[in-house]
Amino acid sequence: RYGLAEKEDQVGVVTGLAWTSVGGDLLQIEALKLPGKGRMKTTGKLGEVMKESIDAASSFVRSVSPELGVKPPKFETIDIHVHVPEGATPKDGPSAGIAMVTSIVSVLTGIPVRKDVAMTGEVTLRGNVLAIGGLKEKLLAALRGGIKTVLIPEENAKDLPEIPANVKEGLTIIPVSHVREVLGHALVRKPEPVEWDEAAEEAAAAARKASPGEGAAATAH
Amino acid sequence: RYGLAEKEDQVGVVTGLAWTSVGGDLLQIEALKLPGKGRMKTTGKLGEVMKESIDAASSFVRSVSPELGVKPPKFETIDIHVHVPEGATPKDGPSAGIAMVTSIVSVLTGIPVRKDVAMTGEVTLRGNVLAIGGLKEKLLAALRGGIKTVLIPEENAKDLPEIPANVKEGLTIIPVSHVREVLGHALVRKPEPVEWDEAAEEAAAAARKASPGEGAAATAH
Amino acid sequence: RYGLAEKEDQVGVVTGLAWTSVGGDLLQIEALKLPGKGRMKTTGKLGEVMKESIDAASSFVRSVSPELGVKPPKFETIDIHVHVPEGATPKDGPSAGIAMVTSIVSVLTGIPVRKDVAMTGEVTLRGNVLAIGGLKEKLLAALRGGIKTVLIPEENAKDLPEIPANVKEGLTIIPVSHVREVLGHALVRKPEPVEWDEAAEEAAAAARKASPGEGAAATAH
Amino acid sequence: RYGLAEKEDQVGVVTGLAWTSVGGDLLQIEALKLPGKGRMKTTGKLGEVMKESIDAASSFVRSVSPELGVKPPKFETIDIHVHVPEGATPKDGPSAGIAMVTSIVSVLTGIPVRKDVAMTGEVTLRGNVLAIGGLKEKLLAALRGGIKTVLIPEENAKDLPEIPANVKEGLTIIPVSHVREVLGHALVRKPEPVEWDEAAEEAAAAARKASPGEGAAATAH
Amino acid sequence: RYGLAEKEDQVGVVTGLAWTSVGGDLLQIEALKLPGKGRMKTTGKLGEVMKESIDAASSFVRSVSPELGVKPPKFETIDIHVHVPEGATPKDGPSAGIAMVTSIVSVLTGIPVRKDVAMTGEVTLRGNVLAIGGLKEKLLAALRGGIKTVLIPEENAKDLPEIPANVKEGLTIIPVSHVREVLGHALVRKPEPVEWDEAAEEAAAAARKASPGEGAAATAH
Amino acid sequence: RYGLAEKEDQVGVVTGLAWTSVGGDLLQIEALKLPGKGRMKTTGKLGEVMKESIDAASSFVRSVSPELGVKPPKFETIDIHVHVPEGATPKDGPSAGIAMVTSIVSVLTGIPVRKDVAMTGEVTLRGNVLAIGGLKEKLLAALRGGIKTVLIPEENAKDLPEIPANVKEGLTIIPVSHVREVLGHALVRKPEPVEWDEAAEEAAAAARKASPGEGAAATAH
Ligand SMILES: [Ca+2]
Ligand SMILES: [Ca+2]
Ligand SMILES: [Ca+2]
Ligand SMILES: [Ca+2]
Ligand SMILES: [Ca+2]
Ligand SMILES: [Ca+2]
Ligand SMILES: [Ca+2]
Ligand SMILES: [Ca+2]
Ligand SMILES: [Ca+2]
Ligand SMILES: [Ca+2]
Ligand SMILES: [Ca+2]
Ligand SMILES: [Ca+2]
Annotated catalytic sites of E, by residue? Predict the structure, then answer.
């Protein structure tokens, strides 16, 4: 079934798009959340650039986590493992960035990813979506694999005229310029924000640290 | 005796199947559980892809551990060592993934592995079983080695027509698509799930952390 | 939009200038502040020299942090991630040093960076600005990208006579010899200093350490 | 004296057998136990495969430590250093595995190793002994070096007919299939087991952890 | 201004002398002291030998720190960053050793370094000054750069007859055999020693460790 | 003065002997003891084999430390830095092992090393001295450098007949087979042993750990 769209909406499972010398391909991306200490593990024979795109995706997600309903201290208590299957095939490049963001957000929020959406786009630390290469090959792979909707960088919209008409008819192609749009299209529902006042939390934490035994001492007599 | 099926059902010892330029071979996989701090050690001249398949196997197992009767905090108190003997022979590739999962689950649960079962299949973080190469050579090696039952990826069932009739007669070949099926066939009994309410446990842990001395202080006077 | 000036003033986003065999280019630099433990992460296929220039920038900023309104212990509670997008393009060299300083200061203080300012210059641990190469190509790229003001090292002012007149008319070119001048031109407002008496703070910390339970004990009876 | 049997029974000093392009040789293996934190250090220009065989030997020993009279928590308080002298000569291969086990067990238990015993055999995590190469050259080296007894893998017993008669007359050659047999022949006395109920110990440790101050609080009034 | 003497006496900024295939050059060395945990960071495209000379310089300084007015525990609370600007130029060799010592001592004591002094010499762990190469080229660079005084190893005094007369007239050249002499010439004032009785301090620390709660308990009733 | 015997007896400074393609040389070895956490630092462009010989020397010393008047817990509170000057010259090989032991023992005990003694010999974890190469070249270098006494491995005594008569007349050559003999000849006085009953100390430490607050609680009421 590899190379085909997923059979059901799943948490943490996202379909990216790869482009190699022999054409485009679907790229299944999986993330898991485990009890831990804030570590990120990546596997699947990933090159340095793809690993860095996961780092950037992860930092972006952490920087907006209250918007996603996740309080920042949560990250100190979990590990995240991102795996790209077909472990013998080398993968590289930054273009899976928005898929990495989506996978990490899904696993953190528990919100499943729509099974018939694929996506390609580099992500920046601010969540902006940058242009990618191989658009035609990637769209052909998406069509072949049963995908219905493909998210592409706004910066690549200028390449759409060169895409064959049957591909554009068979797919809903949505140009995006920020990850917020990506999440809106890819997740089955919108995350609910949580209140987080950083300054207030820091002050409280500092107070706790300054007098660790105070609570206990107040009741001892 | 190397290259032959095990003589008895053992905890943590699983028979995988390797495929090299000179044919197939049995691959004995051993796991041990030791008191520790959540570390994973791997030895046996393993290539990067096989080490990553052990990482993926391990994360999958941790993510479903309550199903296996193991509470997640247990992992912080043990180390797991996975060794593939014949230490001078290089080994690589992702196809031992389901054997790695089985070995880790056996050692965590204490449930022995059936000595006459061999298996091959890449595993994903969700426990899905992906296709492998060298099916014919691996099945021949299994037959030669006295194996009775071989678990293969569902995705490889399409290759069975090319397998010689005598091999298919001498072996029970079972296509599987998820690790749950693998464990059902390979372990001598089914693991018993344990209750684990992650949210409740987290709240309790947070409460303990917030007032470490509280229990003691309440009884001091 | 890559290769063009930013559309709005943003926190942590700075425009540097790169010089390669095929000419000059704008170099977007992004920094994020995350809750953490004083770690620095860098991504974007950066060479060793550029990574070291980020280290030098970071140490300089830490050494003058009270001037910037940031108390030194703050650094133990945050991680900083510096990313240079277009993750597939290798980048190297020390000439983004002053841009790195500006990006880190912006993210620490929360003060946005003027969107129409670009800059190039190596930075030393004392905040001095050292000469760079490729001045002409970098200024051409700035003009092409819609930049209005370019900060260059004082040591490169001697190269200005060789710059075409139309470039010098289209840009405000400001030679600088210390990072303080850079921040004055690049940030939308000046950081407000905070009082920090290192010796007094150290003595207080030492006192707290020497008698950790003292405060509590004083009220127990 | 290097290349000759030891002059007395010593703790932690074991004679292995090496096989190189220029023939067989005795291989002195030394282990030391030091106060520490559970680390393993290895020196003597050892290749990766020999280092992994030391890891496997060490994990096997830890997994059976109560049989050897050593309680598992002991390992957290010591470091073990395994050195193979003649530090300028590269050494590699898994065949010193059973000698590594013997050296580690000797140093942990304080029981000396018989000075006139040499041994060769790969070890698995379960303590099984696997076949090695170069049997003839190794036995010749043992005879030359004044060794009386050589332990070889049961799997190599099939090679004994090719060994010259004078070698077989000059040495007592003992095929072994598990490390327990190795220790029986190599140590000057049998280790005395210690009681260790893992589940009970874990429960007790968990109880201590849950209420660290309890013992103290119970006596405070 | 690079390649010229500094304009004012600064803390932590020392002028070394480099010697390359194209002649001699001034080598600005900068050190910063930051709140930290005893770490040493080095940047500036430094080779292994130069990094090791910084390690040796640092250990020497720590070993004599009470002479410099710095109590040893201070080192556990600071990080030191040594940077050699012109970050794109590779630098190596041990001959900046005494400059590294001077830079570290200046930053630790807060005593500025005379701006018109340059120096070259390898340093040992005991503070001895060893011979260097390229004396003529280095002295020429010093003269060219406006330096007034150059400290050279006593072992190189034998090379002075080969130095051109105008160089020897334009510079005060001082042979030194120990770092104490170097500091006397390079720092604008002498550091004031602090009392430090290691044995007494260790005993006090051990006592505090043995009964952490004692002080508090003595006042609880 | 490099290449000549030391001018006075110093703590931690030992003269080894090197042998290269261009002849023998004196090798000054320096060790320093610093407040720390049990780390070993080595500098001086040392190859892997020489670094491992320092590790072996260090473990040997720790294993016999009570004989040397040093209680084992002391090692957790210090760092040791071993440096071999002339930092630009690569050094390798195991033959400085006994010099490394002597340097470490001198620095730990504070007992100076005789300035006119040089030594060469590999050391094992048990303190045995193994044969070295280049004996003639090393002895010539010792004579040239003003050394009076040279310690060589007992195993090399068989090479003495080939040494020129004038060398043997100019030097006292002492064959040694264990490090204890080395220390007897090289240190200006014998270390005084200290009592250390490991089992008793462990029991006491375990007791302290089991009831950390007990002492305090006993006096609280
Ligand atoms: Ca595929
Ligand atoms: Ca890509
Ligand atoms: Ca085999
Ligand atoms: Ca494989
Ligand atoms: Ca560009
Ligand atoms: Ca540059
Ligand atoms: Ca030998
Ligand atoms: Ca071997
Ligand atoms: Ca220069
Ligand atoms: Ca140099
Ligand atoms: Ca020399
Ligand atoms: Ca040597």
Answer: 95, 138
CA–CA separation, C75 and E78 (whole Å): 13
Residue ranges of the alpha helices (H) in E7-96? Answer: 48-63
CA distances from E17 to B135, C142, E107, E138, F85 (A): 67, 37, 20, 6, 20
Distance between CA E16 and CA E33 in Å, rounded?
20
- Cβ within 8 Å of residue D210, ≥6 positions away: none
Chain D positions in Cβ-Cβ contact with residue B31 (cut-off 8 Å): 125
Contact criterion met (CB < 8 Å) for C87 and A56: yes
Helix (H) or strand (E) holding E16: strand E13-20
Inter-chain residue contact F81 with E59, CB threshold 8 Å: yes
- A79-93 average pLDDT score: 96
Q: Does F122 contact chain D (CB < 8 Å)?
A: yes
Q: Of A132, A33, A9, nearest to A81 (Cα)?
A: A33
Structure tokens at D104: 């580690």
Closest by Cβ to E43, choosing from C55, C63, C211: C55
Physical contact, F and A (3 or more Cβ pairs within 8 A): no
> Cβ of B126 under 8 Å from any chain A Cβ?
yes
Q: Do the Cβ atoms of E168 and E161 come closer than 8 Å?
A: no
Check if A172 contacts B (Cβ < 8 Å).
no
Chains E and C touch (3+ CB pairs under 8 A): yes
Residues of chain F falling short of pLDDT 50? 213-221
Residue E134: which region, alpha, beta or left (left: phi > 0; alpha: psi -120 to 50)? left
Please give the structure tokens belonging to residue B29: 């996989």
Buried b (16+ CB within 10 A) or exposed e, B150-164: bbbbbbbbebeeebe
D220 neighbourhood in chain F, CB within 8 Å:
217, 220-221
pLDDT tens sequence for chain B (221 residues): 556 677 889 999 999 999 988 899 999 999 999 999 999 999 999 999 999 999 999 999 999 999 999 999 999 999 999 999 999 999 999 999 999 999 999 999 999 999 999 999 999 999 999 999 999 999 999 999 999 999 999 999 999 999 999 999 999 999 999 999 999 999 999 999 999 988 788 777 767 666 554 444 333 34
Which run of H or E residues covers position C128?
none
Residues F84, F82: Cα–Cα separation, whole Å: 7
Q: Which of D125, D126, D128, D129 to mutate to test the interface with B (most CBs of B within 10 A)?
A: D125
Residue given tokens 């890891």 in the structure block? D55
pTM, to two decimals: 0.91
CB contact under 8 A, B122 and A87: yes
* Coil/strand/helix, residue D134: coil
Alpha-carbon distance of C121 to C108, in angstroms, equals 21
Question: In whole angstroms, how far apart are CA A216 and each of B130, C207, C208?
Answer: 55, 22, 18
Q: Check if the interface score ipTM surpasses 0.85.
A: yes
CA-nearest of D45, D11, D12 to D29 is D12
* Alpha-carbon torsion (B96, B97, B99, B103), positive or negative: positive
DSSP letters spanning chain A: -TTS--SS-BTTEEEEEEEETTEEEEEEEEEEEEESSS-EEEESSB-HHHHHHHHHHHHHHHHTGGGGT--GGGGGGEEEEEE-SSTTS-B--STTHHHHHHHHHHHHHTPPBPTTEEE--EE-TT-BEE--S-HHHHHHHHHHTT--EEEEEGGGGGGGGGS-HHHHHHSEEEEESBHHHHHHHHBSSPPPP----HHHHHHHHHHHHHSTTHHHHHH--
Contact B83 D125 (CB under 8 A): yes
Report residues of chain E scoring pLDDT below 70.
1-4, 206, 208-221
Instruction: Give the CA diameter of chain B.
Output: 82
Q: Is B63 a catalytic residue?
A: no
